[in-house]
Amino acid sequence: MGSGPMDSxxxxxxxxxxxxxxxxxxNRIALREDASALALRxxxxxxxxxxxxxxxxxxxAARAFGASEAVARAKCVIAEAEIALxxxxxxxxxxxxxxxxxxxxxxxxxxxxxxxxxxxxxxxxLLGRLDEAERALAGxxxxxxxxxxxxxxxxxxxxxxxxxLRTKPARAALARASYAARHAGIPALLxxxxxxARVLDAPAARLITHGGERLIRLEDxxxxxASNAFVIDACRHVVCQSGTRAALAKRxxxxxxARLLAGAWPGDVSRDTxxxxxxxxxxxxxxxxxxxxxEIGRLRTELQALAGVxxxxxGFALAPHRADQVVVLAPPFDERHADVLALLADGxxxxxxxxxxxxxxxxxxxxxxxxxxxxxGKVQSFGRGRxxxxxxxxxxxxxxxxxxxxxxxxx
Length: 411
What we know:
Layout: H1 5-18, H2 22-29, H3 35-47, H4 51-65, H5 70-86, H6 94-106, H7 110-126, H8 130-137, H9 147-163, H10 167-184, H11 187-201, E1 205-209, E2 212-216, H12 218-226, E3 230-233, E4 238-241, E5 244-247, H13 252-264, E6 268-270, H14 271-278, H15 286-302, E7 307-311, E8 315-320, E9 326-330, H16 338-344, H17 352-359, H18 363-375, E10 380-382, E11 389-391
Parallel strand pairs: 3-9
Antiparallel strand pairs: 1-2, 1-9, 3-4, 4-5, 6-8, 7-8, 10-11
Helix pairs in contact: 1-2, 1-3, 2-3, 3-4, 3-5, 4-5, 5-6, 5-7, 6-7, 7-8, 7-9, 8-9, 9-10, 9-11, 10-11, 13-15, 17-18
C-alpha cells in the first residue's frame, strides 16, 4: 500500500475497531475494496454480529493480500478464528490459528500473536479443557499487551477459576479485567466483564438436606465441597467428600440410586421405590430385583473409598465412612437439559455441533434436547442446515468478544 490520506483512513478505522466502534470504522472505509479495507470491514461486520458477511470479507482480504504479505494474511486468519469463536463454531481448524500465531511471532508482532493464544485458550475453556487452557495462557507475558488484550486474558483466567470453583481467584481476575477495560475505554468489554461478575452473586445450586432446600451461591458451593460433608453433586454427577471423588456422569443409573439413598439418609429406601424411580417402571418382577442387586454391587465398588451401601430389611441405606452430614447439590432450578441451557446462557449463538463438543455428547442427543426446549420457548434458532444457530431469547445485540488488540493492516 502507498502512503497518503487513504492510509490515514485505514489507520483511523483500525483505531475505531480497537476501541469497539465498528460504525465509526465503517464510516471511513465502507466504499473501499483494497485488502486492508476489506479486512477491517470484515472485523467491523463481525462486531456488529453479521458473521456470515464478516467471514466472506476476511477471506476476500486474505486472497487480496497475496502470498508475499504473510503477516497480513495471518491477521486475517486470526480474525476469522475469532468470528468462529463468537459464533460458537468450535470445530474450526486450530492448526491454521497455530500457524498464524507462529508467523506473527516470527515477524515480530507479539500483540496479535498473544491474541491468537488468547483465542485458543478461550476455545479450550468453552470445551472444558481447563489444563490446556491454562497452558495456552502461560505461553506469553501479558504486561506489554494493550489494555483490551489484558482484560480479555483475565476474563479467561476468571472463567477457568469459576469452572474449578475457586471464587477468590475468579474475583481477583475479574477485578484486574475490569481495571484494564475501564482504562481501555471499551464499554462492550466492560459489559462482558460485568456479566461474568454477576455469575459469582447469582444462585449456583440448590442445597437439599433433611431440613429442606435453599439456593446457594458459588462461594457456598466451594465451602461445602471443602467441608467434611458427604455431597451428592447433581450438577456435575459426582459423589465427593473432602477432596475424594467418585465420578458417575457416565453411570446415570448408579448416580440415580446414590441420590435416592442420600435423600433418605440416615434411613433407607425400599427396593420397590428404587426399582420404580431408577428403572422407571410401575411393575417390579424378579428380573428387576436381580438388576437392582447388580447395580447396588456396582455402586458399592464406585463408592468404596467414600461410603458403604448396606442392605436393610426392606431395601438399602447409605453409610458414609466419615461424614456426619449428607447433602445433595442440585441445579438452581429443576429443568431438563439444564446443561444445554447453561451453555446458551452466555448470550451467544451456538451450533448443535459446538454444543455437542462442549458437552462431550452426541450431536443427535443435543438436537433432541434443543427441539424439546424450543417446543417450550426456552431456546430459539435461526438459519438452516449447517448455518443453523441456537440461543436463549432474546437475541443478543452487539457481540462483545470481537475486540482486536491492534490494527489489522501491515505497518
